[in-house]
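Example 3.
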Amino acid sequence: MTDWQPLWLSFRLAFITTVLLLVISVPLAYWLAYSRWRGKAVIEALISLPMVLPPTVLGFYLLIALSPSHLVFTFTGLVIASLFYSLPFMVNPLLSGFKSLPPALREASYTLGKSGWTTLIKVLLPNIRPSLLTGIVLSFAHTIGEFGVVLMIGGNIPGQTRVASLAIYDEMQSMNYAAAGRYALVLFALSFSILLTVHLVNHHFSKPDPLS
Amino acid sequence: MSRFLPILCCCLGLTLLSAPPRQNIPATEPPAPGPVPQEVLVAAAADLKFAMDSLVKAFPAGNDISIKLVYGSSGNFYEQISNDAPFDIFFSADLGYPQKLEQQHKTLTPIKPYGTGQLVLWSKKLDPSKERMNTLLLPSVTHIAIANPAHAPYGQRAEESLKHYQLYDKVREKLVMGENISQTAQFASTGAADVGIIALSLALSPQLQKEGKYWLIPPATHQPLRQGFVLLQHAKDNDGAKKFAAFIESARARAILKYFGFGE
């Protein structure tokens, strides 16, 4: 019998994280792409930091930071951790998407009297659909694959913080290779099909650009 | 992503530039005098963390033999050793794991007991000796750290003890699990968990003694934590490992283990 709870938990975590990241990252990437502020390099570096830092560094700081608020060892705590952990995977694709758009697009929209908000929603975002999709999928997949941080601040509570990657590890250590294999297979198949879909869809999107 | 490429190239370049001279040094310099110290790789149950450091310091042949320590949960080590991890000696918090290794012919010598582990209730904020086991039921206690019962003997015994006091079902929702007993202690010592069920040997360490209070959980409430060590096949030609194993059985080593709370 496979316990589906860890898989379900992983998906719930990844889903919530991705939605929140989308809300945070669109304005953030927009600002980073068009702001002329010199200090924005610092912000960009900070956002990319979780990609190169060992998860243990993140885990250490989060454990210290979350301890007083009793958020450590909770699902909410994991969501907060995942937001930091997967932020670059959402912001960076969006940022390069915005940057690759010809300035004429935005200027034309402004000339026609559209507000910044309308321009973003109706002109810019539809034109960076492949970047949006990449960002969404990468953050989702990256959150599913989270292990080190969860091990450090999760506490391995069934139904709360025992996500699929931890469940595999636990089954391994308890020598239940069959159960570990089942989880691993589900994750493997799922990650592969997600990535395959993205590549197929992005091929479809990348038609010749009418503006160039 | 393309912005990262130059940075990556720089890092790679630096690594490549800095590596070769190091490799060239042995060729130009005369070899160091005297024999190279022998290396012994020890897999030790995490409850030995502080005791083992003292044991290694007290080891008389310490100058010629370098003892490399790896701490973890006994179940994890069992798993690694049965997959031929290159450990020379295995200190297990439970006799069951080395016994299984013996059946798999991974061991070199009979299993020798080195002590009995002891569970304590440890807290940074509360004094567990007041309410004893009922500390766990206090409303201010929202998280209780135990070692993962799936592969850490201290976790299995903690669970037995909770069941003995008929507390298990009442506190089940509060339990958080550490990878091994030392991560469990870390959860408690950072205050992330309000109470931890940890090893006495860790509670007696200078760090934890300063930071919190503990109460001994009566050993009669759970199966004994009889611990043992064994030389592994990998140590076949390693005299250093054999010397270290002999030292563990000496009176000096026994005294150190006793000091850190390991019973006979």
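Residues 5-34 of chain A form the longest helix (30 residues). Chain A has a mean pLDDT of 89.
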